[in-house]
């Protein structure tokens, strides 16, 4: 029987080690590598081509949502399960909107974690009933991104809103639970998509085109 190749990504050594120990006991799972941030996760995916990535969300250097976006763009066959200790909907929504196959809370029982990996490996998704209803609510309540002809993602629009309100990169990072480096990446993506050079110009263009309100 061919084993399911799993890459583990978490910035906490203890969690990485315990996941490694627990999942290694499953006969059909093979842990191909460990990574401590999003950048290491991308390198690990290129090196090992895992079937499944168990991806932490809040990490230094590059967070799990940004890493998921890049992995899914470059290697869409790799399936990603977000591992989170937060119940907040926005992180999971951001990850799912960038192609993650589901999420599991870190407090999950090891048996359920292994079962979740198998579900995703066979083409399933992992979203709890509670999260599904939160997602529907948040989609219904989310202000429609009007005239988003520049192809900005929901997360980029979120960063753009904060940018336009005059927040510094450090503050945006804290509010959105991202690393400062990830915020800089989002901002450079925004500038390039809007074809602008600075935040004032970006804010003006976004307001003029109706992406954000005046």
Q: In one word, what is the shape?
A: elongated
Distance between the termini: 59 Å
Name of the CATH architecture of the largest domain: 3-Layer(aba) Sandwich
Strand order of the largest sheet: 2-1-3-4-5
The run of helices and strands is EHEHEHEHEHHHHHH
Low-confidence region ranges: none
- CATH top level label of the largest domain: Alpha Beta
Query: Which percent range fits the helix content?
Result: 40-55%
CATH names the topology of the largest domain as Rossmann fold
What fraction strand? 5-15%
Mean pLDDT across residues: 88
Please indicate the count of domains: 2
What descriptors fit this protein?
214 residues, 13% strand, single chain, 52% helix, alpha/beta, Arc Repressor Mutant, subunit A
Write a structural description.
Keywords: DNA-binding, Phosphoprotein, Transcription, Transcription regulation. Pfam families: GerE, Response_reg. This is DNA-binding response regulator. By secondary structure, this protein is of the alpha/beta class. The chain folds into two domains: 133 residues, 3-Layer(aba) Sandwich (Rossmann fold), CATH 3.40.50.2300; 55 residues, Arc Repressor Mutant, subunit A (Orthogonal Bundle), CATH 1.10.10.10. Helices cover 52% and strands 13% of the residues. The protein is built from ten helices and five strands, in the order βαβαβαβαβαααααα. The chain has a five-stranded parallel β-sheet, with helices on both faces. Helix 8 packs across helix 9. The longest helix is centred in the last third of the chain and has 15 residues. The chain is elongated. The protein starts with a strand and ends in a 6-residue tail after the last helix. The mean pLDDT is 88.
């Amino acid at each position: 029987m061919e084993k399911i190749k799993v890459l583990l990504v978490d910035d906490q050594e203890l969690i990485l080690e315990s996941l490694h120990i627990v999942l290694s006991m499953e006969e059909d799972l093979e842990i191909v590598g460990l990574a401590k941030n999003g950048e290491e996760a991308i390198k690990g995916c290129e090196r090992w081509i895992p079937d499944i990535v168990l991806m932490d969300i809040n990490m230094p250097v590059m967070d799990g949502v940004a890493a998921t976006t890049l992995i899914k763009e470059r290697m869409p066959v790799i399936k990603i399960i977000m591992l989170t200790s937060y119940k907040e909907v926005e992180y999971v929504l951001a990850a799912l909107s960038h192609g993650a196959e589901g999420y599991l809370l870190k407090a999950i029982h090891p048996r359920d974690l292994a079962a979740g990996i198998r579900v995703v490996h066979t083409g399933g998704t992992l979203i709890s009933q509670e999260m599904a209803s939160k997602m529907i609510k948040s989609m219904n309540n989310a202000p429609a991104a009007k005239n988003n002809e520049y192809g900005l993602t929901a997360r980029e629009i979120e960063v753009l809103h904060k940018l336009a309100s005059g927040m510094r990169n450090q503050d945006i990072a804290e509010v959105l639970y991202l690393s400062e480096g990830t915020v800089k990446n989002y901002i450079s993506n925004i500038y390039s998509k809007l074809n602008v050079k600075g935040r004032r110009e970006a804010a003006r263009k976004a307001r003029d085109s109706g992406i954000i309100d005046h």
